[in-house]
């Protein structure tokens, strides 16, 4: 694994240097990521940790969903749009979204199509319809507390 915990920013050209990397990339200190950098980082073959980033564009999420690695750790992300959820649903590995506190019905429906490991332990607000949608998730779904009970009610 390449550990670059001290980096808070990655220039587009620097991200390009990681294209084709056959290893995991740990960038927990990054605070932002451009669309171009996300496109470059999506071309590594290992997992990627971007746990310091709180916001990503839909375009960046769409690129990262093409990652070939086993884990996409976006545990710092605080919001997930419907389009972003649709993109992430296509990712085949583990998705970690620990700080996303709520999902729309549409986002929940999209994420239910993801068939891998999905960690949404940060969810604190979910409508009944969103919970019903999320209950259709076929892989491992990690939730906690009241949200877990609500989703299980529809399973």
Helix percent band = 25-40%
Per DSSP, the total helix count is 7
Strand segment count: 7
Specify Rg, calculated over alpha carbons: 15 Å
Written description of the protein model:
With 155 residues, the chain is an alpha/beta fold. The protein has seven helices and seven strands; from the N terminus they run βαβαβαβαβαβαβα. The protein has a seven-stranded parallel sheet, with no helix packed on it. Helix 4 (82-88) runs parallel beside helix 5 (105-112), helix 5 packs parallel to helix 6 and helix 6 (128-134) crosses helix 7. The radius of gyration is 15 Å and the shape is elongated.
Could you give a short description of this structure?
The protein has seven helices and seven strands, in the order βαβαβαβαβαβαβα. The chain has 155 residues and is of the alpha/beta class. The longest helix has 10 residues, at 145-154.
List the topology elements:
Blueprint: E1 2-3, H1 12-16, E2 25-26, H2 35-41, E3 48-49, H3 58-64, E4 71-73, H4 82-88, E5 94-96, H5 105-112, E6 118-119, H6 128-134, E7 141-142, H7 145-154
Parallel strand pairs: 1-2, 2-3, 3-4, 4-5, 5-6, 6-7
């Amino acid at each position: 694994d390449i550990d670059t915990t001290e980096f808070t920013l990655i220039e587009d050209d620097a991200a390009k240097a990681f294209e084709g990397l056959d290893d995991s990339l740990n960038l927990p200190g990054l605070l932002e990521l451009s669309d171009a950098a996300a496109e470059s980082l999506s071309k590594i073959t290992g997992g990627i940790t971007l746990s310091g980033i709180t916001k990503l564009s839909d375009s960046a999420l769409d690129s990262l969903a093409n990652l070939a690695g086993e884990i996409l750790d976006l545990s710092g992300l605080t919001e997930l749009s419907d389009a972003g959820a649709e993109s992430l649903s296509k990712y085949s590995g583990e998705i970690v979204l620990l700080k996303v506190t709520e999902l729309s019905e549409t986002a929940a429906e999209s994420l239910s199509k993801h068939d891998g490991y999905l960690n949404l332990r940060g969810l604190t607000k979910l409508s009944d319809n969103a919970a019903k949608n999320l209950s259709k998730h076929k892989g491992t779904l990690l939730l906690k507390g009241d949200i877990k009970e609500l989703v299980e009610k529809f399973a």
